[in-house]
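Q: Is it fine to ask for two folds in a single conversation?
A: Yes, each is treated on its own. Send the first.
Q: Here.
A: Result:
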Amino acid sequence: MFFEESELLKNLPTQFFATLVAKVNQKVAAGNDVINLGQGNPDQPTFDYIVKEMQKQATRPINHKYSQFRGLHELKVAAAKFYKEKYGVVLDPETEVAILGGSKIGLVELPWALMNPGELLLLPDPGYPDYLSGVTLGKVNYETFPLKSENKFLPNYQDINEETAKKAKFIYLNYPNNPTGAVATKEFYKKTVAFAQKYNVGVVSDFAYGALGFDGYHNPSFLEAEGAKEVGIEMYTFSKTFNMAGWRIAFAVGNPSMIEAINLIQDHLFVSVFPAIQETAITALLDPQEDIEVKKLVSKYEERRNAFVSAAKKIGWNAFIPGGTFYTWMPVPKGYTSESFADLLLENANVAVAPGKGFGVMGDGYVRIGLLVEPERLVEAVKRIQKLKLF
């Protein structure tokens, strides 16, 4: 007996990363030494102090019971303390913090929780592909706003059509930015709040790479801007800061009405996150070791960035220099689309990159390089590409 998928599932966008992984795996299975720069999965282990805490928490019988529906109060308090210490933002743990099973869940479920079918969501182009999953599942409409190199891949709010701005209910932002590596400033977030207030638009700041700033840059939180909590929320994940991508733990902070809506939909979808992970997340945020380990991690990514960008420059391939994340945004040579260029590199150089088109129409002139292998492999990847004589 065959059961057909629902129309809702049929309308979901193709899972971009799954398609990319399949291509790479096929090449590896054929016995090729592929340097995979197309991934966004942290390659370093979870910090040792976090793993040790998890080992302890996993032995506690109480942690094997159902979690509280809306997460541990203690974790919400820890999240609030973390934001106060890192960004000077004051949060009420009970009304301004929601626990998430990874920030992707929050980003995808938000249209279900806070929008009605047919309402308008504004999304960045290029941007994280899974934002579109929330559009489909929430049955909402969306329009994109361009992120252009001449504006350092920050949106220019004056370029958003006024009629569109008036219709929009929410806007998604992501800085430090995936895929470009661009970073935001406090002045930009001030302009964001002004835009949101003028057009009555809610802001969702995807702060997944917040801890990863290069050259000593401390990425500001959107919530640092005056009035930010009145117009929006921010989502913070443990995946990138602590190399905890597989643990699936994050939180949303900010506007109480948005936080309550997220909590309410999660009451019906989940019974929160494994309590041992939540207990460990408290230690991840507040242990004195946190600052030391994160600084070492950022230094490692910065070393990789410098190695790749320097090697690429020598062959005439000039990067947009990322100010954060663990990506470099590279232009494709003339005569190629991002997909044809990515296919060429995989087939003829055994180098996997992520085609920019997967992040939106505006990304088609670029490929995303993941700085998730050691510097020697990054330099080797450039040497392989050089042999193709494209630059």
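Q: Second one now.
A: Result:
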Amino acid sequence: MRIFRGRYETTAERHRTTSFEIFFDLVFVFALTRIVEFMEDEPSAVTLTRGLLLFLLLWFSWSSYAWLGNQVRADVGLVRTGTLAAMAAMFVAALAIPGAWRGSGPVPTALVLAASYMAVRTLHLALFLAVSRDRQLTRTLRLTAVPVVLGWIPLVTGALVGGATQTVLWTVAFAVDVGGARIASGFSPWPLRSVSHFTERHRLVLIIAVGESLISIGIGAGAELRGWLVLLAALLGFAAAASLWRLYFDRFASVIERSLEGASAARRATIASDAYSLAHFPMVAGIMYVAFGIEQVLATLIHEPDAHQRPLGLPGTVALYAGGALYLVGRALCLRLATMHATLAPLAGAAVLLLLIAPARLLPAVVALALLVLALMAQLAVEWAGPDRRPRCPPTSQRVDAGRRG
């Protein structure tokens, strides 16, 4: 054990994201594209729900390694070797995603996916235990391991059974895994060593998710442009992606990051766990659904007769507008958890997007996409014109307390 303990490097307070972690994120974005591909195969409410379950699998796998890389360098020694093995397991999981609910074929893809997920989670816990020299952290890991292992029972059972039962059992599996881990962290919070590293990892994953939406646009447009409407739809998709990017990076990211930096040590762990690991999930999921909706618009324009008059299907419309609403709700939740300051603008924008689903369902596909872009741009204008023009800085007392504790 001493040999293994010597093969890692503890992170500094100002540690930043390494190139090795960016490599890890590339595997993550590949898996995101596979989820979109899975939902494209048979677009329906059931498929969209299953896509969310698959994204849960990916997100909490990614998030757990963000915490690990915050404690020890991900590109050194034992941790690098173990993380490479986890990346290989995640890559295999990504390959299995499109066939996760198919019962035919020589390879039991659902079982492969379940086994890959278990490997990623096992490696994370084993690596964290190997490098932990803190009693509280070791206690947190041991408490977390209990629901993680219990969640494997419905996970494997669902993979063997398949169909609707698989969906129910996998929902139970992730509820046990993620919910139990959240309860465990409530008793023994995860320590946060480097604020700059943790915030940068989440900024990068948002950029990667937006990049995934652009990849979906490129795939949906096909090998060659088949008309002016396709070009217009692709540009509208780019405008939607740019609007989502601005809604996070123009001011929002600096607000929550300043709040995390200025908080006390105990409060930092809570903000990191709630505002980042938890509340960033609906934002990235929302981007994924919007990407799927844009791809459906392009597919309609390319493959349907009378494409300029053809409305977008219900799954695509719901993905576009409910995905945008999910993104805005995630922003509101993240801001509330990070700063204890509630704002109605994102929630009002989310409500507007949900109300637009019904009329957008009747519009031609490219017009429905244009309406989404207008709604997102209006959201940007409203938030910029609001009274809170400058990022809120945490109270001085909190920053002084953080300095004393640090």
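Q: Anything structural to flag on that second result?
A: Two points. The CA atoms of residues 335 and 341 lie 7 Å apart. The chain is about 80% helix and 0% strand.
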